[in-house]
Specification:
The protein is an alpha+beta fold. The strands form two sheets. Strands 1-4 form a two-stranded antiparallel sheet. A two-stranded antiparallel sheet has the order 2-3. It starts with a helix and ends in a 44-residue tail after the last helix. Helix content is 13%, strand content 24%. The protein is globular and about 40 Å long.
């Protein structure tokens, strides 16, 4: 599991929205013009990028050593963030295989 977190088979993928939707953000972000966004509207046909590699190495989730290969973090008390802070996916805390109807199960 840890090897796939640090070195996913594919670093990213793209998806095409089938209908208009709104993607909620876990944390608000501020754009270059100062607008604060808590969600991102998408239109049918719009392509969006899913960076699994970046999600798996996010230091705001995994800590300053996020990019280090430390499999022992999975057995250390407090070594893995709380479940609600982790990316979703078929393997808890690892988004390498995506989530939902298009989950890669191997």
């Amino acid at each position: 599991k840890h090897r796939l977190r640090v070195h996913p088979a594919a670093a990213s993928t793209d998806r095409v929205a089938l209908s208009d939707d709104i993607i909620p953000l876990a944390k608000p972000l501020t754009t270059a013009d100062g607008t604060v966004l808590s969600s991102i509207p998408i239109k049918a046909g719009q392509v969006f990028h899913i960076p699994m590699g970046a999600q798996n190495l996010d230091p705001s989730v995994w800590g300053s050593d996020a990019a280090e290969f430390r499999p022992e973090r999975w057995i250390e008390p407090g070594g893995v963030p709380a479940f609600d802070q982790l990316p979703y996916g078929p393997y808890a805390g690892v988004s390498s295989f995506l989530d939902g109807q298009r989950t890669c199960i191997g």
